[in-house]
Specification:
Helix content: under 10%
Strand content: over 45%
Largest sheet: 8 strands, mixed
Shape: elongated
Oligomer: single chain
Structural class: mainly beta
Number of domains: 7
Number of strands: 53
Radius of gyration: 78 Å
Length: about 775
């Protein structure tokens, strides 16, 4: 311990830390019965420049003689153990001088020791006053908080006091004021409040009561009361009857505290095992399969009537060995104890009893699984492929995991190697050797027909005199290595005619009787027409009256069919040239070589026309088994009529202006046509008597008999007296459709003169006079007319 402080840096730091901690705990409290309140002050020794040693403390006229906690100066309060207490710290100081000391300061540590021996230390720097002369004064030095039952003391103290000067107050306690009026104290115990507690416990049929008194001021006195008028003054009680005992404890200061202890009737622990220790066999997989342990003490033990506390039953299982092959041995041990401490734990000093059961956990249960259903397999499928035949996927066992069922096969053959049965026996065994089996029947059959290797001959056509030879076919089979192929040929219709059907059938078969057939039909016609429906083309003279078209079927159509037909105009127009057909229909039975006739009426008119055409169309075929190979029949009408053109002669006066020659049509025409013409001189000369012309006249469409076209030729009107003159108009050629000829190809145009008779000729003058030197005499002769 420290008796004085030095200038050591370490010691100063230590004190400074304690002082700060003390300030955080203590609280100033006023005391009305004292002339002054305690005062927190700064510890001057915290200043490194303040050096006070024990040799500096030469004055010994004040002494710290006592310390206690209380709420008043009597010091007689008490508390319950563990209670948090805030109490005033009182210090008793003996002033041995004959004068008043204004203040008394304490610098040191407050040390607290709890019932478990844990120590805490906190700094204290407190001051109070004043101190009357030649007397012991008790002054408050602030409040502290502690736990009832803790031991308190002041340690490592430096005590400092002032002189009698009124100015020497607590506020003036600095380093210079400490020496020489100071002193040191290693430790002074703080007397805590008085407290007590009592505990009773059985000692056989009687009880002992132990008393514990703390705090206060020794010595103590005790006054006990109990059942049936019991009294005693000893500290503890021994061998007294059960019941409630109360005690009053008084210390040397006259302070009192009370305590009480109760112990009911004393108990006795008696228990005997009533379970059969013989081994019990349990079906299961692990120790957890055991029956639930007993939880009621009477199910395991026969228990005495008066236990000392609550009975607690515990158990433990101790397994040994493995489930397979011999089983798990389990020892179940029960423990029953008298829980005097009420903590559910068997503590030292508590009585107990044990009882044992023996179990054997064994597995004799067969594993289970669902065998795959019986299946029928094709011969080309893999019977080892469990994804096809079925696998066991629900292996289950009460104990083992990860089991896999296995199988063995027995094959039962038949006369055909592609058909047989398999007996598949599934087996599942668990880790302990328990086994279960089940059978699955796999029937292997061959329902797959052979297939031809070559491209199969399709239905075709042939001319009656060019029949193709049969093709040679071979076959393969998924299971039978040697399938057979046979050919049969038959006929529908008369095979000596030009129209009939050849039916060729190839049959591929295997040993299981599966067959694949292929039939080819050859539709024989005279020319080898393609399969389908066709209409022919036809040309007739319009005088024939009827055009007959043939619609013929090559091939067959099951169930028959219908086809619509109608006519369409071409250059031939209905109804003038033929009678139209609309919305008609044929019903075919669907037989090879079947033919239908469409008759179209032709009109014999008198019109000159070209050969004209029209169509007969096939539409709306009601089957998809065939198509229409040729759906348009072209009809041609040949014309049997003719016409002619001619031009007439014409006489005109030269004053007519234009000579109009008429070209006349004899007969009716349908198409327009042209006639070429040109003039030619005769006695009339082009340019002086007429204007030469050439060109074409056009007769329009549908020109009737007697139709005319006019050719205009300009005529020259001169004043010459002349005779009648002529020129000609020639029709040179015709551009026409149909038969149109020129009947009269030349028209003669005669121009008559319109001038009067002339008066003759005469001399302008009957006499002419000339000089003989002129050489010539000229006479003028004039024509009149």
């Amino acid at each position: 311990m420290k008796h004085f402080y030095t200038n050591s840096k370490t010691e100063k730091t230590y004190v400074r830390i304690l002082t700060l901690a003390f300030f955080s705990i203590f609280t100033l409290t006023g005391f009305s019965q004292q002339p002054a309140d305690p005062l927190d002050i700064l510890n001057p020794l915290d200043n490194p420049s303040c050096t006070v040693t024990s040799g500096d403390c030469t004055s010994k006229d004040l002494e710290l003689v006592g310390a206690f906690l209380d709420i008043d100066t009597a010091g007689c309060n008490s508390c319950d153990e563990g209670e948090q207490i805030t109490a005033t710290l009182y210090l008793s100081i003996n002033n041995t001088t004959g004068s008043t000391r204004t203040s008394f300061a304490v610098f040191g540590n407050l040390t607290t020791t709890d019932p478990l021996g844990n120590i805490t230390t906190e700094a204290i720097s407190r001051c109070n006053g004043s101190l009357p002369p030649s007397t012991i004064s008790t002054l408050p030095y602030g409040q502290i908080t502690y736990t009832c039952g803790d031991a308190l003391s002041l340690t490592d103290l430096i005590l400092s006091w002032t002189d009698a000067s009124p100015n020497s107050t607590c506020e003036n306690h600095d380093c210079a004021a400490i020496a020489p009026k100071c002193g040191t104290v290693d430790e002074i115990v703080i007397t805590p409040p008085l407290q007590s507690s009592a505990v009773a416990q059985c000692d056989g049929p009687v009880i002992d009561v132990d008393l514990s008194a703390q705090g206060g001021t020794a010595p103590f006195t005790y006054v006990w009361t109990g059942p049936n008028g019991f009294t005693a003054t000893t500290e503890d009680l021994n061998d007294v009857e059960p019941g409630t005992y109360n005690v009053t404890v008084t210390d040397a200061q006259g302070c009192t505290t009370t305590a009480s202890a109760t112990q009911a009737e004393c108990c006795q622990f008696l228990a005997s095992c009533n379970l059969d220790p013989a081994e019990q066999v349990i079906e299961g997989c692990e120790a957890s399969a055991l029956p639930a342990p007993f939880t009621v003490p009477s199910e395991v033990f026969t228990v005495g009537p008066n236990p000392c506390g609550d009975l607690v039953l515990t158990h433990s299982d101790t397994p040994s060995g493995a489930l397979c092959p011999d089983g798990i041995s389990v020892v179940r041990s029960y423990t029953l104890f008298d829980d005097l401490n009420n903590n559910q734990i068997l503590d030292a000093g508590e009585e107990s009893a044990t009882c044992v059961q023996n179990f054997k956990v064994v597995d004799t249960t067969e594993p289970t699984f669902t065998v795959p259903s019986d299946v029928t397999f094709q011969c080309d499928q893999d019977t080892e492929d469990l994804s096809l035949t079925g696998d066991v996927s629900d292996e289950s066992d009460n104990c083992s995991i990860g089991l896999e069922a296995t199988y063995t096969d027995i094959i039962n053959a038949s006369s055909c190697s592609t058909e047989y049965t398999i007996t598949r026996t599934w087996t599942l065994t668990d880790a302990c050797g328990n086994t279960s089996t089940s059978d699955q029947i796999i029937t292997v059959e061959d329902t797959n027909s052979p297939t031809f290797n070559e491209a199969l001959p399709a239905n075709t056509v042939a001319a009656y005199d060019n029949i193709p030879a049969p093709e040679v076919l071979t076959a393969s089979d998924m299971c039978d290595p040697n399938p057979q192929v046979a050919l049969n040929e038959s006929y529908i219709g008369d095979n000596t005619s030009t129209t009939y059907i050849i039916v060729r059938t190839w049959t591929a078969s295997d040993c299981a009787g599966n067959e694949t057939l292929h039939s080819q039909r050859i539709y024989v016609t005279e020319n080898g027409d393609p399969i389908g429906l066709a209409i022919n083309d036809i040309s007739v003279n319009e005088a024939d009256g009827t055009a007959d078209f043939t619609v013929a079927l090559t091939g067959e159509v099951s169930g028959g069919f219908t086809v619509d037909y109608l006519t369409n105009n071409g250059t031939a127009i209905a109804p003038g040239d033929f009678t139209a057909i609309a919305g008609s229909q044929f019903a075919f039975g669907g037989n090879h070589g079947e033919a239908k006739t469409i008759s179209v009426s032709i009109n014999d008119d008198s019109i000159v026309e070209d050969a004209e055409n029209y169509e007969v169309n096939l539409t709306n075929l009601t089957t998809t088994e065939i198509g229409i190979n040729k759906g348009i029949g072209n009809g041609t009408i040949l014309d049997n009529d003719s016409a002619t053109v001619s031009v007439s002669d014409l006489i005109v006066d030269e004053a007519v202006g234009n000579a109009q020659l008429v070209v006349v049509l004899s007969g009716d025409t349908e198409e327009s046509f042209t006639v070429d013409f040109a003039t030619a001189d005769d006695s009339a000369i082009a340019g002086s008597d007429y204007t030469a012309v050439s060109g074409q006249v056009t007769f329009p469409e549908n020109s009737p008999n007697g139709a005319v076209e006019v050719i205009n030729i300009p005529i020259t009107d001169d004043s010459l007296i002349e005779p009648t003159e002529q020129f000609v108009l020639d029709l040179t050629s015709i551009s026409a459709i149909g038969t149109i000829n020129i009947a009269d190809n030349q028209g003669i145009v005669s121009i008559t003169d319109n001038d009067g008779d002339g008066s003759g000729v005469s001399f302008d003058a009957t006499s002419v006079t000339v000089n003989e030197g002129d050489g010539t005499a000229t006479f003028t002769v004039r024509l009149s007319g």
